[in-house]
């Protein structure tokens, strides 16, 4: 179990060519939310495909102390476990499909481009502490910071897509 600390930004969708030219790797992700369990209100399974190879992950999250930190339990699972966990799907939430571009900059940057938006994407910056410094590359056009706006979490977007998206 670890601590997830990240800053989030709503950004204009950058071009795939530019992201790849900067060394980004591409993952195609589908995530399905599961019914909550005791102690973890947010649980999901994820299928990630990189260069034709699929991997599967189970993740459970809950709030932690701090403004934007969460306790996260995450581990790789087998394809069979992924299918078995699908039986616990929360059908009140939509599946999320997105392309994730991972870019090593000063920190790890993850740019999620969602299937339901052609204009906007979400940039996540993984940090070692809430007060850690970070920089955003100049080619990324930031619309606004959404770190504490929970309508921009994947879980919230599985319920309802924000109106300005």
User: What fraction, in percent, of the residue positions are helical?
Assistant: 10-25%
Computed Rg:
16 Å
At the fold tier of CATH, the topology name is Hypothetical Protein Pfu-838710-001
Average pLDDT across residues? 91
Distance between the termini: 32 Å
The count of strands amounts to 9
Q: Main sheet?
A: 8 strands, antiparallel, barrel
What's the order of the H and E elements? EHEEEEHEEEEH
Description:
It is a single chain. The protein is mainly beta and 165 residues long. The chain has a single domain, classed as Hypothetical Protein Pfu-838710-001. It has three helices and nine strands. It has an eight-stranded antiparallel barrel.
Features:
single chain; 165 residues; mainly beta; Hypothetical Protein Pfu-838710-001; 47% strand; globular
